[in-house]
């Protein structure tokens, strides 16, 4: 799930829960792919990730919350996974938080953007940025 450069600065949100669970843009992209493909293997192909990585992410999501985010139906024709009602609500809440964070930080982001060095080579990334892009 490689990130693309945007022409404007933006805020992304990653929630780190007290029980060790994580929910952020990567999980949203996986949920969207599962919704579209109706299977974890289809989502893995669409995202260019291994099936194992996607399955482990779905498993972690389902164990993070009391209600499952993704329901799986092994061997079912026409799709082996779907987003639950709780999963849809979780996505909506995340998107609301992300919109509010973006609105609240707009002026600060504009100020920071005005001070950018536009000759910066994005290939020279920090270790943290490399981890985020992996």
Short description:
This protein is mostly helical and 134 residues long. It contains six helices and four strands, in the order ββαααββααα. It has a domain at 20-107: Arc Repressor Mutant, subunit A (Orthogonal Bundle), CATH 1.10.10.
Overall description:
The radius of gyration is 17 Å and the shape is globular. α1 packs across α2 (40-47). The chain has a domain at 20-107: Orthogonal Bundle (Arc Repressor Mutant, subunit A). The protein is mainly α. It has 6 helices and 4 strands. This is Molybdate transport system regulatory protein. It comes from Methylovirgula ligni.
The CATH superfamily name of the domain at 20-107 is Winged helix-like DNA-binding domain superfamily/Winged helix DNA-binding domain
The span between the termini is: 7 Å
Q: Return the string of H and E elements.
A: EEHHHEEHHH
**From the helix content, strand content and strand pairing, which structural class follows?**
mainly alpha
Q: What characterizes the major β-sheet?
A: 2 strands, antiparallel
Low-pLDDT runs of 5+ residues are none
CATH overall fold name of the domain at 20-107: Arc Repressor Mutant, subunit A
Protein name: Molybdate transport system regulatory protein
């Amino acid at each position: 799930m490689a990130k693309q450069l945007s022409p404007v600065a933006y805020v992304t949100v990653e929630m780190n829960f007290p029980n060790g669970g994580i929910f952020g843009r990567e999980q949203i992209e996986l949920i969207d792919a599962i919704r579209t493909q109706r299977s974890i293997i289809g989502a893995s192909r669409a995202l260019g990730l291994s099936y194992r990585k996607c399955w482990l992410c779905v498993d972690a999501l389902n164990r993070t919350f009391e209600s499952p985010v993704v329901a799986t139906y092994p061997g079912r024709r026409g799709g082996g996974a779907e987003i639950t009602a709780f999963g849809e609500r979780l996505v909506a809440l995340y998107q609301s938080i992300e919109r509010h964070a973006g609105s609240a930080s707009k002026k600060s982001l504009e100020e920071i953007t005005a001070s950018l060095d536009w000759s910066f080579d994005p290939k020279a990334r920090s270790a943290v940025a490399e981890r985020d892009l992996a």
